[in-house]
Write a structure and sequence with these properties.
This protein has about 280 residues and is an alpha/beta fold. Helices cover about 30% and strands about 15% of the residues.
């Protein structure tokens, strides 16, 4: 793992500490390339994180600093990480699993989530065009309602739908801003389809528990009815929140999970602009 630093010791400290707190995503080797920090940053790394390799250099720039690590012939995979990020359990494993799943993949990007739980679009971009790049950096392409040609840089046409937990009225965690999924490790779960159950099991595995799925409903209406009756909790896509019964408790996760939304169509279809706009609007 390569981290290029130039000042900002507080952010870098949080970044490196997050490595010490992860369980299944510990990197085997961490290299901090200090590119001419004018403050105590390199000394902080040497003092507080002796397990990290520290390369002190003059200000050689971001690309050149990363190349010092990328040139290492002994590294099978290298993650380039900014110092203002924090690693979370499952991150590295998910990236490596994706690369291993397809021999044609040579590079993957990590999902970035802000501290407020929202997706950081910096991790989801399309191939830019001169027009979309200009629109992005002037701010026009980042405005809500920007056309596809202007917003292409951020790949807003690929929706992301946050998954949430629903619970019965009066649930002990109701009123919480966001919760850890492990807080529901002893809960009874209700599911309604194979895809939802697979996602639940994946999220629970990252949280360190095996979900106790006691009931399976045939459809969403039955599933939410069982939850409202206090028979268990369930995960649902955020896209459905506006159609759920009002008495359900919505519990959002501190480490959010998202499902992608894609529009597949025949290449010769030209009348999909309205449908694409509706899906994008629904996904937020």
């Amino acid at each position: 793992m390569a981290i290029v630093s130039h000042g900002a010791p507080g952010l870098l400290r949080r970044c490196l500490r997050s490595f010490e707190q992860t369980a299944d995503s510990k990197p085997r080797r961490v290299v901090v390339v200090d590119s001419g920090s004018p403050d105590e940053t390199p000394d902080l790394v040497a003092r507080e994180f002796p397990w990290a390799e520290l390369l002190r250099r003059e200000n050689i720039g971001f690309a050149a600093a990363n190349n010092l690590v990328l040139r290492d012939p002994g590294a099978e995979f290298v993650l380039l990480l900014n110092p203002d990020t924090e690693l979370r359990d499952g991150t590295l494993r998910a990236c490596l699993d994706r690369i291993d799943s397809d021999a044609g993949i040579g590079m993957v990007g990590c999902k970035l989530v802000t501290e407020s739980g929202e997706l950081d679009h910096a991790c989801k971009r399309s191939f830019p065009t001169p027009l979309s790049a200009l629109a992005h950096f002037t701010g026009v392409g980042r405005n809500n309602g920007a056309g596809a040609a202007l917003s292409q840089y951020r790949a807003t046409h690929l929706g992301d739908d946050e998954v949430v937990v629903i619970a019965a009225p009066g649930h002990p965690l109701s009123g919480s801003d966001r919760i850890d999924l492990e807080d529901l490790g002893d809960a009874t779960w209700i599911e309604d389809n194979v895809g939802s159950e697979i996602m639940l099991r994946q999220l629970a595995a990252r949280a360190g528990f095996e979900p106790r799925i006691a009931m399976t409903a045939d459809d969403l209406l039955a599933k939410t009815g069982m939850v409202a009756a206090g028979l268990g909790v369930a995960i649902v896509p955020g896209l459905l929140l506006s159609s759920l019964r009002a008495d359900l408790v919505i519990l959002r996760l501190k480490r959010p999970a998202f499902r992608g939304i894609y529009l597949l169509h025949r290449k010769d279809r030209k009348d999909l602009a309205a449908l694409e706009a509706a899906l994008t609007d629904a996904a937020g």
